[in-house]
From TrEMBL:
PROSITE patterns: ADH_ZINC. Its cofactor is Zn(2+). Keywords: Metal-binding, Oxidoreductase, Zinc. GO terms for biological process: protein tetramerization; small molecule metabolic process. It comes from Haloarcula pellucida. InterPro entries: ADH-like_C, ADH-like_N, ADH_Zn_CS, ER, GroES-like_sf, NAD(P)-bd_dom_sf, Scyllo-inosose_DH, Zn_alcohol_dh. Pfam families: ADH_N (PF08240), ADH_zinc_N (PF00107). GO terms for molecular function: adenyl nucleotide binding; anion binding; oxidoreductase activity, acting on the CH-OH group of donors, NAD or NADP as acceptor; zinc ion binding. The keyword Signal does not apply. This is Alcohol dehydrogenase. Belongs to the zinc-containing alcohol dehydrogenase family. Residues 36-382 form the Enoyl reductase (ER) domain. PANTHER family: L-THREONINE 3-DEHYDROGENASE.
Length: 385
């Protein structure tokens, strides 16, 4: 089968404290410390066979994520920017939709022909974190498209326990191609969904939501906020193209934080009440946190989602004075987040189709990732067949 494979040179930085497991398995815990000179290639790979507890999925669409971009981008010494877990060479891609074409000997949750999407983290279900219900923080996890082969390929094998049917979307999208395009955006939507409802506490219909950063996670997040009954959704984003996408999705309050004063703007739009929900999806935390802290409504929830390279100064007194809470949120695993997001999509309330702005075929998947490095798209998709 054809697949987009990312490879890099294992070359731990001299001052990096390499663990024994990393040295033995070449599975990096901090990729930016060990992997050099990443290279992408569309190449021929053996079609995988599903293990007993897996299904084989014929991939229809896979989306390019910020992490796919940061596995390709490097610093001056050639080390990749991505700082979490990887093993290479690996077929990348983890936001996907497809059709089950084969099931392993013990896999019986899905039928052949069923349209599906999947979570990213294959958790062990046995470690302390898993047994406490925090599958996303499993101590023995693997990740599709990072430490195991992913979805920029004609086929991918997926443990059935992290696979979810999207057959309910047939009611919403009568065109099969539309269904699979939409289903490939379930995964990015789950990131903010989990932050808003799995992590933060007490977000109510009618709350004012502010997104700081309107890339793919911000855009899908704004759609989730609207579907969940936000009173107003406000957004700040310096890219003209991305602000236009948000406008075209029907969002009225989208601003360039370089041209307007974001604090004044939030106060104006919320009639001086401040925002109840603040979502950090930009990574530019030294700019965004001062704005967040000056626009906190009473009992505001701040949801931190982005991967920021540095830490902002936090004005603790402002959280105290407004009974506000800051929640860190990572991933989307477990807690029925996936099926709920799929239900929102099936009900027609979450419609991400307008977020997809570029589509490439598999032979040009490397170009798709280069396109995403420009950071002007809503979502870049790769179409497999
Ligand atoms: Zn992603
Ligand atoms: Zn575990």
């Amino acid at each position: 089968m054809r697949a987009l494979v990312l490879d890099a040179e294992w070359s731990p930085r001299p001052d990096y404290d390499l663990s024994e497991d990393e040295a033995n398995r070449h599975r990096a815990m901090n990729s930016s410390q060990v992997w050099k000179d990443p290279e992408l290639r569309v190449t021929e790979r053996e079609r995988p066979d599903p293990a007993d507890d897996e299904v084989l999925v014929r991939v229809k669409y896979a989306g390019v994520c910020g992490s796919d971009v940061s596995m390709l981008e490097t610093d001056d010494d050639g080390y990749m920017h991505y700082s979490a877990y990887t093993r290479f060479p690996t077929v990348t891609g983890h936001e996907f939709s497809g059709e089950v074409v084969e099931t392993g000997a013990d896999a019986d949750l899905f039928e052949e022909g069923e349209p599906v999407t999947a979570e990213v983290t294959d958790y062990c279900a046995r470690c302390q974190m898993c047994r406490q219900g925090f599958h996303g923080h499993c101590e023995n996890f693997e990740q599709i498209g990072f430490t195991m082969d992913g979805a920029f390929a004609e086929y991918v094998t997926v443990p059935e326990k992290i696979c979810w049917s999207v057959a309910s979307l047939e009611r919403t999208y009568d065109d099969e191609d539309e269904l699979y395009r939409a289903a490939a955006t379930v995964e990015p939507s789950t990131i903010s969904y989990y932050g808003l409802f799995g992590r933060a506490d007490g977000i109510w219909p009618g709350d004012y939501h502010v997104y700081h950063g309107v890339g793919p996670i911000g855009l899908t997040g704004m759609n989730v906020s609207r579907a969940a009954g936000a009173g107003k959704v406000i957004a700040f984003e310096p890219s003209d193209q991305r602000r236009k996408i948000a406008h075209d999705l029907g969002f009225e309050h989208v601003y360039n934080p370089i041209e307007v004063d974001p604090v004044e703007t939030v106060q104006e739009v919320t009639h001086g009440e401040g925002a109840d929900v603040h979502v950090e999806t930009s990574g530019a935390v030294s700019q965004t946190y001062p704005v967040i802290e000056d626009t906190l409504a009473e009992r505001a929830n701040v949801v931190h989602i982005s991967n920021a390279g540095s830490d902002p100064e936090i004005a603790l007194r402002k959280y105290q004075g407004n009974s506000a809470q800051l929640y860190g949120s990572e991933g989307h695993t477990g807690q029925q987040v996936f099926p709920r997001v799929i239900r929102l999509m099936a009900s027609g309330q979450l419609d991400n189709r307008g977020i997809v702005t570029s589509t490439f075929d598999l032979e040009n998947a490397d170009t798709a990732i280069e396109q995403a490095t420009k950071r002007v798209d809503g979502k870049v998709l790769v179409k497999m067949s």
